[in-house]
Amino acid sequence: MLPIFRAAFPHRFLLCAALVAGGAPLAAQPTFPVPATATSPEAARAVEYVRAHAHDLGLSAADLADLAVTGAYADAHNGLSHAFLVQRIGGHDVLGTEVGLHFRPNQVLLSRTGFFVKDLRAAIAKLPQPAVVAEAARNAALQHLRQPAAGAPLPAELVYRRLPNGTLAQSWQVRVRPAQGPDAWTVLVDAATGRVLKARNQVIREPKGRAASFRPATTAPVAPQWQPAVANGYRVYASPLESPLHGVSTLAVSPADAVASPFGWHDTNGAAGAEYTTARGNNTHVYTPVGTHVVTPGFSPDGGANLEFDFPHNAALSAQANQPAALTNLFYWTNLMHDLSQRYGFTEASGNFQATNYSGLGVGGDYIHAELGEVYSEGYFNTTPDGAVTSNSYPAIVLGIWQQALPNALTVAGTGPAAGSYAAMPLTNGRALPRTTPITGALVLADDGSLNPTGGCEPAWVNAAQVRGNIAVADFDYDCDFIEKLRGAQLAGARALVLVHSLDFLSHIEIDPADTVGLRVPLVMVTRTDGQRLKAAMSAGTPVTASLLGTTAPPDRNGGFDNGIIAHEYAHGITTRLTGGPAGATACLDNEEQMGEGWSDFFELWMTTRPGDVGTTARGIGTYVLGQPTTGPGIRPVPYSTDMAVNATTYAYIGHTVNDVNYGYDDFNYPYDSHYIGLVWCSVLWDLNWAMIQRYGYDANLSTGSGGNNKTMQLVMDGLKLQPCSPGFLDARDAILAADRATFGGANQALIWQVFARRGMGSNAVQGSSDNLLDNTAGFLAPSGLATAEAQADGAGLTLYPNPTRAQLTLRLAAGAGTAPVQIAVQSVLGQVMQTRTLTAAAATAGATLDLHGLTPGLYLVRVTSGASSYTRRVVVQP
């Protein structure tokens, strides 16, 4: 999701930054069923495991009745089976009790994530009555979201959540759907204190204050201009092109994957023959929705009986005029993302997006709605649990039209250091810049007398005498919205206001037209680099004279042509359904250290990597829609690159402000921007991708290739399934390590450790709570003497890995070790026995998992005795 600016409701934006990517109401929502879950082999194996290990899992006999299997499926490529369980009371999940069980093909447990509450019903019975009533919780939620009082009572339910110490607490879950825009909030309010604990938006986006758009569309779409037609052909900017700036359009002929979309992209019934001749089919429906920027609501390009989607793209025309070509390109890329992700394990069983599930596994009826043109200068994804669709809630990618900056709108006279012309982005529905006689005056930096004086948030500026009759300059910050700065500038007598953005991109800015009443001062924004240049000249003491003129902007850019954005948004659907199982859909990605935006950036970069690219090249995100060249910085604080001189982000950034970029909390104690947290995560994944390419080469066949890029994508996809609900950075790192052991036999363990250690996620790193950005510690060490792969059995015939470990240890004796029972003891370095276990010789030979969740971090000795043979190994348990 590409960020845009905050306007009328800055706090709403800050809240969104605390969210993950997205989705369904909090975990207390009844989980949607997965077909055959109760009777599938994968579910049965999980239930059998839980019953056999109830004591180790902290479950009493009574607790077994409160467990639900929310999803279970198997992977064909590595033979793993996955099952996802949760404790449930009264039809509602208990938050924080999501557990994942992952088994090898031989039915031996590979890994387990999550925790249950012991004696759940007894714990609930001991809880006091809520000190906060439902109505007070509703009011707290509305105040938190800065929404007006509701006319009718909001839905509020009392739910339970597991705390990190294993105890229970009560919360009110309040649902809020604002009158304007697509947002659908679920707010969790502490039933004891009335404090808002968490707010999550079903829509994965960064709102700009008002979701509704106000710029009228005046250009009708061009009529289809048929060129020499090719049956089942699509004129698109085909993979791996990122946008029209990266190459020319071509005809993609019959591009549907025979495995992922066996009946083509226009089928829905699983029989030969297309059901639709428009851009609609089993995986996606692409169209223009109802909206201010849309000329023809419901328009979808029609390829006719031969499915000939050959529409021209004329960059000189408006974005609306190019809708047929843009919608065709969007149809191609959403289907491509569906087909490729299925090849890597995002299957029908694991919850992909399809109208009809041909295998009968998973839940169908949830194809992607890809909507183009309703919003301005943003994109977002709405996700739902597998198969959970209503008339106003369905999986959707919504892409907008991107306004372009006015070239040479600001000019500084003279020969000084700031002399020259600058591009500027105007406030769309504010006072327009004049087109003939420019606004001229000295640039004067705002001073509102506050601790942040250049923000211009206070209404009475202390330097109003200097501002009067000149052009005010203020810093873009999040202490107030645009309208307050503009009013302050007008009150001070400024002729215009220039905002200096905090980053080096410009995007559409607008506010509610009702808020512009009485405002006569134009507002424009310049980039951080340009603004710093202007401010440096102003601080020198010599007056800086400038003029503002309303120049002609280049044609708007259509989001349907930015393939990176399409891949980014689609990836939100992949990550939310694979983390914690397909029934949760975002409930497992709403913690503060979650990396949803990072995974989406990785998919964007990976899908648009071309043969001949190198890892050190700086890659910006969203350069096309921002009107930047292909080498532009993009929308992130720094571009992606394996070169630490270009991108030096590490795990140490999390929770801190580095180079004027906040990777921690804002003034409201919410994560400042989930994209910045994601930047750090994607940086390490991008490093891993290029390290794997260096080892295995690059394969241009993205779907079935065997190159390092293919292997990295497989690790990322498998890691999503193996990581816990609400993962932090180190949880996800360990899941990728586990994925390598499961899929590639541990062949890349040392390489993975080295890559993660380079970015501060090494063996001595500490994650702390994944719901806290302030308790983590970066560590740059890779384990020495890695015992990480099954092939690394020692000469005595014992395999023990991974070491170091965070929670679980796999033990395997070599074949021929005898038939005597195998005794296992885990001891502290002082000799205290912490854990014992007895295995049959057959189980030890097949491989067994030791659960070390209960051990405090440190060094331990593992003693294994089999008949006359005895082994002792040192094992490091990490935080």
Automatic annotation (TrEMBL):
Residues 800-877 form the Secretion system C-terminal sorting domain. Residues 1-27 form the signal peptide. Its cofactor is Zn(2+). Its main location: secreted. The keyword Repeat does not apply. Residues 440-534 form the PA domain. Keywords: Hydrolase, Metal-binding, Metalloprotease, Protease, Secreted, Signal, Zinc, Zymogen. It is found in: Secreted. InterPro entries: Fungal_virulence_M36, PA_domain, Peptidase_M36, Peptidase_M4/M1_CTD_sf, Secre_tail. Belongs to the peptidase M36 family. This is M36 family metallopeptidase.
